[in-house]
Structure formats: C-alpha cells, structure tokens
Sequence to fold (412 residues):
Amino acid sequence: MTDQLEDLDTYRERVRTYMEENLPRRDHDRPWNPMEDDDDRASMNRDLQRRLFDGGFAGVCYPAEYGGQGLPIYYQRVINDVSEDFDMPLLFSTPTMSITGPTVLEFGTEEQRRRYIPAFLRGDELWVQFMSEPSGGSDMAGALTRAERDGDVFVLNGSKIWSTYAYRSDLALCLARTNWDVPKHSGLTMFIVPIHHPGITVNQIKMVDGTEEFCEEFFDDAIIPAENVVGAVDDGWTVATRLLFHERAAVGGSSPYTQGRYRNTGDAGRRRITSIARREGKADDPITRQLIGQTEVLNVVQRALIDRVRTGIESGHFPGPAGSLVRLFGGMAEVERVTIGLELAGRSALVWDEPAAGTEGVDYVRRQASCLGGGSTEMARNLISERILGMPREHAADRGVAFREVKRNPSR
Ligand SMILES: Cc1cc2nc3c(=O)[nH]c(=O)nc-3n(C[C@H](O)[C@H](O)[C@H](O)COP(=O)(O)OP(=O)(O)OC[C@H]3O[C@@H](n4cnc5c(N)ncnc54)[C@H](O)[C@@H]3O)c2cc1C
Fold:
C-alpha cells in the first residue's frame, strides 16, 4: 500500500508549485491582527479553501469517498510546512476541519457524511461549536440547553456562548439535554444546527482587545429535524468525548486534520520573533538573543511532544486523554511566547491601534485565550492526573444523581 503513495519530496514540490500559482503570499512582517477583523475575512477563507480543494489539497486525511484525499498525516504535514509562506484558510482549519468534521465522520450517518463533509472541504460551509454555556464551559456535561422531542423534530431552547465566528458560520454541533431524569452524562444529545435559522439569535460579544469574534446564541423554540441528531439520542456524551479528543489534538497541534499552522511553532514563528527584535533595534542585544533562544526551545520541545504523544496514542501506548499533555504544553508555551514578544517590543507594545504598530500588545491582552479555548489548561491538568496518572477523581456532587435533582444556580 505504502509503495503506491507518492514520494513525499515529489509531493512537496507539487504542493509548493500549486500554492505559488494559486495562493497569495503571506506577509510575515504583518501577521493577522485581530483588530483588523473585517467582512472579507470569511469570504476570503471560503475562497482559499475552495482553491485548496480544487488542487486536491483539502481534507488530506479525510476518506476519498467524502471528498478527501485518503492520505496519511505525513502528507498533511508537508502541506502545513510549505503553507507557512502562504495565506491559508485557517478559519476552516479549526473547528470545521479538525474538530466538528472528524466528529461527523466518526458518528454521523452515511447520509450526514455525504451531505456535510464534501461541503466543508469545498469551502461552502463553515462550522462552529455550540458547547459552552453561560453557566460554565468546563462542565460541558452540565449543559442546560434543552431539546424536547415533538414527532420528527426537536424543539431547542436555551443559550450557548463563546462560539467563535458563529455570526459568519453556517452550521454548528450543539450539545443539548434531552433527558433530565438520568445522571448528567446520560441525558445529552448532539445535534447539527443551522445557525441562521428561525428561533436562533446570534449576538457578537465585544472583547477587551476590541475584537467581536465571540458570539452568544439564544434558542427560542428553534425547530431541529430529528435527522440532525449525531450519534444516538441521549448518548451525546459519547460523541462529545470524541469531539473533545479532536479538540485537544487540534489545539495541541497533533491533529491529522489541521491545515496550515497557526501556533507559532515553525519557521514563521521564528521569523516573527526575530523581526520584532530587528524592528526594535535589539538584534545584537545578548538578553534579546537569550529570549529568542528560549522561544526556539519551546518550539522544538512542542514539536517533539506533539510527535511523541500522537505516535503514542496511535500505537496504543498512551491513552486518548494523553492529548491533554500537548494541550497543556501548547497553552503554556503560547503564553510564554507572547510574553517574550511583549518584552522584546517594549514600549511599542503599548500602542496597538496605529496602522504601523505590531500586534504584540493585543497578543498579550488576549494571551490567556490559549489556556481557555479548547478546554482550559486547569481541566487538562485534571485529566492528566486522573486519566493518565490514575490519581483519585475530584469530588462531584452530581455524580449518579438524576440531572433534574442536581442543585444549581438559576440559569440566565
Ligand atoms: C479562543 C477561545 C475560543 C473558544 N471557542 C469556543 C467555541 O467555538 N465554542 C464553544 O462552545 N466554546 C468556546 N470557547 C469557550 C471555552 O471552551 C471555555 O472558555 C472553556 O471551556 C472554559 O469555560 P468557561 O470560560 O466557561 O470557564 P469556567 O468553566 O467557568 O471556568 C472558570 C475557571 O475555573 C477553572 N475550573 C473550572 N472547573 C474546574 C475544575 N473542575 N478544576 C479546576 N479548575 C476548574 C477553569 O479552568 C477556568 O480557569 C472558546 C474560548 C476561547 C478562549
């Protein structure tokens, strides 16, 4: 089988040639600034995704029968390496390609797979996750959003929050409670929800850094067809557990479905940190050089950890929750990189709404996002201690109790 696959060097050349002819060059000195979010970003990403698809470079690890290429992860990695020099459809990478997509692939019906997977690979439909709720995202199984069955449909009520780019996305995977008489993990169902749909209101949330990419959604008797259930009714936690697995892999950097690199672990990250030092006239300063060296150590260790954990999980030597190791390291490393960027930028990081300013100030203000998005680093620590090291599970007052009986704060 392996000898029928294209040689990786030839593949690399083919990818580079295609990208040179079809994708815009990335401006390394001007990374995407979240303050510059504009209406074109989503349509630009849809267009870039379509270009990758047309060239046969979208969904490299997705099966060919659903529009993918059916290739091993090494081919996706070649694309990720080469793509550092080009604009990539990163909005499609996470969560569409790397979190919601694999979940539909694993738990969707054959009809759902054929309907939804080719559509996002082509860049037609952007997905988001409706998981976190105002009552807290860490306790995902404590979802209060409810879906009540009414013949062939479910009626959705409640609210979700922190959904990234929901206002410009098309579909969501949404976890909702369908049974209140069983313990919390046993009464959930996963749904495919069309976002711009009667009964669903999407509001953008303005953040401290000025961005408005986060959304909150309110469901008021939104009608969702029963055919949109992913997995079995009341067994949504099984689906959610795999979704979280894919999320940890995507956020940590070990997912085979992530396209392009937006953790700063590669050449682009190195160029970026050195360009801040040059811009500030500090390239010859010994302390600056140490800080640059420090980021390089983070990058090398992170890449090695990703490889080790991914191969460990694939070979069965590590349990699935080992993805928490890369998730934890990824979050902490990103905070450290951003802090170093701020230190190198010095006073210029205090200004971030001038066209000529760098993004170090904004990056610093939002640095904690890397320890929250994709599940918090504290929850990753819990998983590592309980599910990898076998330490006792933390106390949970709601374990084994019918969800209806669980004491909770009044919902909003
Ligand atoms: C960049 C970014 C993108 C995101 N995108 C999405 C998205 O698209 N869709 C979506 O549904 N959500 C999204 N989120 C939300 C994210 O999943 C939640 O922020 C995260 O799960 C934490 O939930 P919370 O913010 O409600 O904090 P809470 O759950 O209220 O927790 C507050 C603090 O308490 C800690 N904590 C809570 N429980 C425990 C415990 N048992 N042990 C130890 N510490 C604990 C947490 O680590 C955290 O520091 C995103 C968040 C970010 C930052």
